[in-house]
From TrEMBL:
This is 3-phytase. Its EC number is 3.1.3.8. PROSITE patterns: HIS_ACID_PHOSPHAT_1. The keyword Glycoprotein applies. The keyword Protein biosynthesis does not apply. One of its GO terms (molecular function) is acid phosphatase activity. Belongs to the histidine acid phosphatase family. Signal peptide: none annotated.
Length: 509
């Protein structure tokens, strides 16, 4: 039995205050990106059934219907097969080979530091996504309009980040005592796109409360623009990330897979409509509309059009995309994740990082904007950067097995996009003091509530709780960083191919 007693104030009291001159708000920073709003949701009128909250707070108030062709009593949670458009859900350590581990602090240990890297919540489609293009195609034939906005967080997305903040205050709030004792307040970071700012604000509101968060955290908004370094938007600094034969081979492979995967579905849908010729791109667009309309409007009639097999293929479409664009099958993933890797190492070691990645050295060399002694860190970013970072950390348990088959034969690889890059995904690092271990300072990594084994790290033996010596892990991460050649991987002229595990590195680098 565990009995814990913590001393200290119930409320987070502080002697410092927010400094708007050093940490300007969104209206001053600018670079908010596209911000068109969409049609307001009306699920109380449009949904076929009321979304009763049966205990899964991540889904309420969304309505996920059963796939086309399913029988009575059949249950298939389509929301877990939407790749990066899935709402996040708890993973289990057993999924990665640690059946006895969980996110609670292991017996005999005490947490001393928390590092959180998390993605924004559910949003409208990006401006260049397939649904707007498909909407124009439909509009030309039917004169109907497009109801979704672009880029911004949806109401459900705001709630995801708020609830994440509430959860982390419940789990780790006592670490705020360190700020109270030092007379300081935390610096949390995000990017300048509107959804990113709102993500960090909603997380802070859940963590600190409303309106307390307004004066209990300095929110650092880093400009997201192709002319400015930013570890949270590293793709802007890596030209090879958007070249078909290098950083975007996953997008190409996924499109080729879709060309064959949805033929039967396209034929079925085509038989029920005239005046429009459907393609595999349209099938993906309609599946995305199922995802986007559900998370934006609460319900989507597009979901009913697709079978369980369609949703499985939809998931694999995203698996291919992310495995080969931002996972170990990508030649530029580790380079894009190197910025956050180096920032983690800097916070571990107390030494400012070097500017050999996409991180912004202007902000990463001063205690004002990049403090090295916080007990809690919380950085908001995009899903691709989270996955790039996991690849840079060389967490191979997340990608266990042979490279993903480009033909759709999953095989034994453990990678699933909906597990690692869903809306509000979060990567947690716990630094622990464990007198029952030698050395006593330990560390471990957690993805969406699943503890990830790191026995692939030299010097890290298998551990039931996923722990390893802090100093050893830092040394392994430093070696990993030194082997990632950001300039070569992001700027050199080379060719990469799907079906390979590059460990996130360019071939011949």
């Amino acid at each position: 039995m565990r009995v814990y007693a913590f001393s200290g104030n119930v409320d987070f009291c502080h002697a410092a205050a927010v400094n708007p001159s050093l940490f300007p708000p969104e209206s001053v920073v600018g670079f908010a990106g596209p911000t068109p709003a969409g049609l307001e949701p009306a699920a109380a009128q449009t949904a076929p059934a009321y979304p009763y909250n049966e205990g899964d707070a991540n889904e309420f108030p969304l309505v996920n219907p059963q796939p086309h062709g399913s029988s009575t009593g059949f249950t298939f949670d389509i929301g877990k097969y939407w790749g990066n458009l899935s709402p996040w859900y708890s993973l289990h350590s057993a999924d990665y080979g640690l059946p006895d581990a969980d996110p609670l602090i292991p017996e005999g240990c005490e947490i001393t530091q928390l590092h959180l890297l998390y993605r924004h919540g559910a949003r409208y489609p990006t401006s260049d996504a397939a649904p707007p293009t498909f909407a124009h195609k439909i509009a030309n034939a039917t004169e109907t309009g497009f109801e979704l906005g672009a880029e911004l967080l949806t109401p459900f997305g705001r709630s995801q980040n708020f609830l994440l903040g509430v959860a982390y205050r419940q789990l780790y709030g006592h670490l705020l005592n360190n700020f109270t004792e030092a007379g300081t307040i935390p610096v949390f970071r995000t990017e300048s796109q509107d959804r990113m700012v709102k993500t960090a604000q909603n997380f802070a509101a859940g963590f600190f409360g409303v309106p307390e968060f307004l004066d209990q955290v300095n929110l650092e908004i880093l400009v997201e623009n192709a002319t400015v370094n930013n570890s949270g938007a590293s793709y802007d600094m890596c030209p090879n990330a958007n070249i078909t034969s290098r950083g975007s081979i996953g997008s190409t492979v996924a499109a080729q897979f879709a060309n064959n995967a949805f033929n039967a579905t396209i034929a079925r849908l085509q038989s029920q409509i005239s005046g429009i010729n459907f393609t595999s791109t349209d099938a993906i667009a309609m599946l995305q509309l199922c995802s986007y309309e559900t998370i934006a409007l609460g319900y989507s009639a597009f979901c009913d059009l697709f079978s369980q097999e369609d949703f499985l293929n939809y998931e694999y479409y995203y698996d291919l995309t992310f495995y080969y664009n931002n996972g170990p099958g990508s030649p530029v993933a580790a380079a894009q994740g190197k910025g956050y890797l180096d920032e983690f190492i800097a916070r571990f070691t107390g030494e400012y990082p070097q500017a050999n990645s996409a991180l912004n050295e202007t902000f990463d060399n001063t205690s004002t904007y990049f403090p090295l002694n916080q007990s809690i860190y919380a950085d908001a970013t995009h899903e691709v950067v989270v996955l790039d970072t996991l690849t840079a950390f060389n967490l191979t348990a997340l990608f266990q097995g042979p490279p993903l088959s480009v033909t759709g034969n999953r095989g034994q690889n453990s990678f699933l996009a909906s597990r690692l890059v869903p809306f509000a995904t979060h990567f947690t690092t716990q630094v622990l003091s464990c007198p029952v271990y030698q050395p006593t300072k330990q560390i471990r990594f957690i993805i969406n509530d699943a503890v990830i084994p790191i026995n692939n790290y030299p010097g890290c033996p298998e551990n039931l709780n996923g722990l390893c010596s802090f100093e050893n892990v830092v040394s392994v991460l430093q070696s990993r960083s030194s082997e990632i050649d950001f300039n070569y991987d992001c700027f050199a002229n080379y060719t990469a191919a799907p079906g390979m595990d590059y460990n996130g590195r360019a071939p011949n680098s």
